Amino acid sequence: MTMSLNCSTRRRLQKLNQISSVWEGDRRPLSTHKDSEVQGECILWVDGSQGVVRAMDVVAPETGPEAVVRTLLRAMEHPNSPAQPARPQKIVVSDRELQFFLRGVLQELEIVIDYVPQLPLINELYRGFQEVRNEYTPDLPSQFAEPLKKKALEIWQAAPWELLEEHQILAIELNQNDVGTLYASVMGMLGMEYGILFYRSQDSLRRFRASVLSDEEESPELLEEAFLKQDCLFLTFERTGGEEDEEIDIIDLADLPITQIQPSFGIIHPLEGLRAVLYEEEAAAVFLALAALTRFISSKRRQLTAEVFPDLSDRYRIALPKNKTRKSVQVDVTVNTMPELAAELEAMAGFGHEDEFVDVDDVPSLGAIRDDLIPEDSFLSLGVISWEMVEHLRETATHFAQPGEMSSRGDGLPVILIQTSRPKAKNLIAAIQATGGLKGIGFNPGADVFGGDRYDLGIIQTENGELFLFGEFLEDDSVHVAARKKWDERCKKTEGYCGLIIARGLMGASRGQPQLRDMMALFEARSLSAQDLGIGTLQLMPQFE
Questions:
Q1: CA distances from 337 to 196, 269, 293, 297, 525 (A)
Q2: Whole-number Å distance between alpha carbons of 28 and 137
Q3: pLDDT tens-digit map of 367-383
Q4: What is this structure's pTM?
């Protein structure tokens, strides 16, 4: 059955001014390459007399010939500027089936529809499209695109920023394609930006460090200039899609599932500036560096947790991805830590100076109990961890033990879990360390004199004798009553031993249920009774300005 326009549409088109022009029309694939990621077909209607594209559309390959008619009607009634609405005197196409289809649909519009083997104007336009497409440079060479992204996500899961600060440099010896040694600086320990900078020389690394630490580089313009003078390859991580969360000002990427992590690659050079494209030799260098770095982090993880940056070295044989002209190539890559350079950069930045840290003794005290230790909006819970998990945390997390041998009776170690963002967790760990460590955890009665409520107050005592409030629980809260009962029973079985776990991941999928990798510190402590604390019932008093 031949399709035709409805009567009202036909009458409307007949009212258009008919011009003595010949229009070319065609439908062609967007790409001539079978393996191209670009899918779809382009429909074009061009006025050959005026040399203008009146209408263009992109459709799926399986779309029927009706789409060509829809684009033609738009070319007549609503053409691209500067063309005016009009009806052509003649249409030429290079497809016989399309010619017969259009003849059936456009009857009574007084338009001649002819077949020609060649459409010179559309051919010229398509040649231009293909030239532009052929000149396009992808972000990564085809043979490295997927392997590099895979290696980047392996690095993300290895999380070297949990072990290395930015000044703790690793030398990665490639000796491949004119690249000798890359100097890797890992970003992410502060929980802000995650990535790795692969400097081509130690001089570039030192110059950039000196520039950003100089008082003269405080203006944004000078900092940008210093940034663009670096000579490095880089890998950075972003949130997939770059979506903004209006309710959360800062999102720690480490709190997000790996499906929301997007790696990006590029280079910075004083003469090239920033380029978010890697060519083949650059991609090969980054691939080798990432592959070796992942293996180094995995095999040296325990040694890298030492307080002093250790002197370590290892060698790996890495296979480069194949391409059409090259079989698999094996490259020997050596990775070394650089303790002397790390000490130099640390001294340059002034790290380790005690006067740069605020002593908790300098923070104003709120009576007998202070409430300035635990970050606001932290997730808090009372629970237990298995003895196997205790052993694991002793090996992998920041760990502080109590004197004496802990009894491993019962179902595990009773713990207080405090979950917050990664930067706040690091600050909390440092603050407790600054007091000499954790001495005990207990609960003490409290009362609201005016409201009449009674509370069970969670109290942390540090080694310097300070008392800190970590939680306020209503005395008649059935959930807390049950948790507190189990806490006392478990502490009795462990002969008074308990613990404090500090975890990251407040905003991520692990909120309230942190995984082992989220647990950053375990402080072992003694359970304290209200009598041990010796502060009596605390009264909540109103604060007046």
A1: 15, 25, 11, 11, 35
A2: 23
A3: 467 888 888 878 888 88
A4: 0.51
